[in-house]
Design a protein that fits this description.
Helices cover about 35% and strands about 25% of the residues. The protein is built from ten helices and ten strands. The chain starts with a strand and ends with a helix. The structure holds adenosine-5'-diphosphate and magnesium ion (MG).
Amino acid sequence: MSAILVLDDITVSFDGFKALDRLYLAVDEGELRCIIGPNGAGKTTMMDVVTGKTRPDKGKALFRQEVNLAMLSEAEIAREGIGRKFQKPTVFEQLSVMENLELALSGPRGILRALRFRPSPREKERMEEVLATVGLLESGERSAGELSHGQKQWLEIGMLLAQEPGILLLDEPVAGMTDAETAKTAELFRSLAGKHTLVVVEHDMDFVAALGGKVTVMAEGRVLSEGSLAEVQADERVIESYLGR
Ligand SMILES: Nc1ncnc2c1ncn2[C@@H]1O[C@H](COP(=O)(O)OP(=O)(O)O)[C@@H](O)[C@H]1O
Ligand SMILES: [Mg+2]
């Protein structure tokens, strides 16, 4: 397998404090990677570097081996096929589920143009496929405001999928979800892996276990340990600095 994303020797400093300290991280195409680690480890900063929100002081962020993300703007990175979901859902509550998806498909054209957007038959098919994937096929006409917290999160994931991203970055996607919603989300992510590459930051260890992918433990801006969940849980350095506490 080949790496779709390589962070090579990335350093990010804020007023002299190194949020990322010569970070090296490689993710293979189609992987479902979990990133765990204590608060302040640099997990969100790592995602900020990948999406262009934060510029590294040093190092390369290579997408598909050739594109250096550290040289691109946030919009250019999104167009390369890197989608990000923040913790708080940002769906348009007054619009229907389907209209939210249309917005996502129509891209950055402004909301008025997006509302006049007429999907082609191919795009309509694509939207229904996405709704089925995220378990909202029956809810297409409902207003997004009526959805449960978990359903809003799934809609937002659907909005990312509509743009057919190569990589999906998800920061604490199951925070605030019920156990049943969390279990469904794990199932959804496992079904997306392979077709997409997923990088998931999460604290919920049951969820991490349910995802079943490789786990990277970050601490103090670097990778502390990497392997299966069982492997990193057995790693002395991890027990000392994070899981054992
Ligand atoms: N914009 C910023 N300005 C100053 N310090 C920051 C900024 N963003 C993050 N940090 C610091 O960098 C460290 C890593 O933060 P973060 O990436 O949010 O960690 P995590 O997501 O693993 O909890 C923290 O100590 C945080 O306070
Ligand atoms: Mg964070």
